[in-house]
Amino acid sequence: MIRPVPYVDLPRFVHALDQRARARQGEFANFVASPEIEEARSSISVLLGSILPITPTASTWICEDHWRLLGLAQARKRPGAQAWDLAYLAALTNPGGQPSAVSQYEVLFELLQYALNAAILKGVHRFFARIEDTRPEIELFGKLGFQRYARELTYWLESPAEGVERLAEATHRATLHTSERPMRLLTRFQPAPPPEEGPDEIRPDVALRRWQHHDAWGLLRLYDACTPRRVQLAEGLTSEELVHTRAAGGRTWFVPLLEPTSAAFVHDRGVRLGGWLRLRFGRGSQPHMISVLAHPDDADVSPALLRFGLRVLALEDQRPVVCQVREYESAVVDALRAAGFEHWGSHALLVRHLTARGLRDQMAPALESRVVYGVKGFGTTPSRMSEGETTYYAREHD
Fold first, then answer.
1. How does strand 147-157 pair with strand 126-132?
2. Both 46 and 168 in a single domain?
């Protein structure tokens, strides 16, 4: 039987038990989906989540058999409530210490299907999931209509100071094997002389300023320039969703003692943003996190943003640095490799579109071009909709 659990953050407790069991060479549950690093938000939910075991923005379901927990799932809604993210999906390996008549495959399938049905009843348009590339359970998502639209790569660096040195060496080697004109361009990335910088002051190689919330529109335009069209159509992000997912809430303040400090910067070129950088300082056992987004027309921005971020992180506690980047962001990937980052893991990004526009007397797929761009067809391609005929859309009647 599957039933919802109102607001209780049970998946986080089960995940903590599984992590403890794995540290002792065991396994408590098979987590198909789970966040690698929890990203706290600056909102009242952060305070409530720290005082009480509740998550007001999440929906949780459990699968049980005669009061024995078999599995659980949790989905979290994005701003606007038009999209959900699958945060947790797990099946217990040995529930209650007794063998179960239901397999893990069936538990996971039923939980995922139940979550999709709940999203449809709530009027959700898109359901997202992030799954490890090598997991066999990814077949479940294909059977339920999920489509793979991108791959996310995770890179790991043991020390930020080491990354700064590696970038300086790579820049120096590049200046020795280029002509005079490229040398003048690359000298901007050479380390600044120590006398020109104070102990608490780091001069970036490109003009940077602090992220402000009014930069959300510019970040959306930067995302459009960096992202293939097929990925844009699959994600369908609004500016609020982009700020929530890629910019981690776009906050300019944080709740002390409840979440790690973070800082975000933008490279403003006036008419557009040339780059965006976010630093999340690690706390406890968590590593530092760095996120970089650079315009494809500005190839020199990626190493400059990365070098600045690593130099800032090098002033903090010495701990590893993690960076998550999409596979098509080649400029950022090249900068990470030059800094000594090692490939740590790959995740498939999946989406399931739950709604589609219905045209009169016919059906149309959700990502069909004229549906996405309007009823006049795509570009100069003539269609029945471009003849001025009135189109009636399907409506739900009570």
1. unpaired
2. no
At residue 309, what are phi and psi to the nearest 5 degrees? Answer: -65, -40
Q: Do residue 177 and residue 295 come from a single domain? A: yes
**Token code pair at residue 358:** 């219905």
Query: Does residue 352 sit within a domain?
Result: no
Q: Across-strand partners of 210?
A: 265
Which structural domain, as residue segments, surrounds residue 294? Answer: 154-346
Can you give the pLDDT at residue 180? Answer: 44
Q: In one letter, which amino acid is 316?
A: E
What residues pair up with 323 in beta bridges, in sequence order? 155
Distance CA 264, CA 250 (A): 8
372 neighbors 232 (Cβ within 8 angstroms) = no
Kindly give the residue spans of alpha helices, DSSP state H, lying in the chain: 10-23, 44-51, 104-121, 138-143, 160-176, 180-186, 216-226, 229-235, 239-245, 301-314, 330-338, 369-373
351 located within any domain? no
pTM summary value: 0.78
Partners of 352 in the beta sheet?
127
Give the burial string for 249-285 (b: 16+ CB within 10 Å, else e): bbbeebeeeebbebebbbbbbeeebbbbbbbbbbeee
**Residue 18 has which token pair?**
């599984």
- Of 262, 240, 238, the C-alpha closest to 252 is 262
- Rounded CA-CA distance 182/172 in Å is 12
Complete DSSP assignment for 194-211: GGGS-TT----SS--EE-
Residues 309 and 190 both lie in one domain: yes
Position 263 confidence tier, pLDDT thresholds 50, 70, 90: confident
For 116-145, the pLDDT digits (tens) are: 999 999 999 999 999 999 999 999 999 999
Measured at the CA of 70, the angle between CA 65 and CA 75, to 5 degrees, comes to 120
Look-up of token digits 């040195």: 165
Predicted confidence band at 361 (pLDDT cuts at 50, 70, 90)? low
Q: How many CB atoms lie within 10 A of CB 372?
A: 13
Amino acid at 326: R
* Position 23 in a domain: yes
